[in-house]
Amino acid sequence: MIDLSLRILRAAMARSGEAKVNTVEVRLALRCLLHHCPEKWPLEAFWDAAGADNDIGRAQGTTAGFNGICRQLKAADRYPEGTSS
What number of other Cβ atoms are within 10 A of residue 56's Cβ? Predict the structure, then answer.
């Protein structure tokens, strides 16, 4: 479930420079990761950035949120084996 959630967020992050990515699947992916991240700020940062109006800000915010999520998962020893961040 963690791996699938990260794939969804990575794909959304890749699209975020062109359009808003505050979609149902992104929201569900973030929800699935909620109990695996000791700190919630990267999840909130990703979601807030996903709906931002500014393309550059949205892309930077989702990237920062995604990196924070990966760090939280690694710190909690929940990052999937064989997954690149």
Answer: 10
Per the CB < 8 A criterion, the answer to whether 22 and 47 are in contact is yes
Q: Tell me the H-state helices in the chain.
A: 2-15, 24-33, 41-50, 55-75
Q: What is the pLDDT of residues 12-68, one digit of tens each?
A: 999 999 999 999 999 999 999 999 999 999 999 999 999 999 999 999 999 999 999
Rg of the chain on CA atoms, in Å: 12
CA distances from 27 to 2, 6, 34, 75, 82 (A): 14, 12, 11, 22, 24
Q: Is 26 helix (H, G, I), strand (E, B) or coil?
A: helix
How many angstroms separate the CA atoms of 59 and 33, rounded?
20
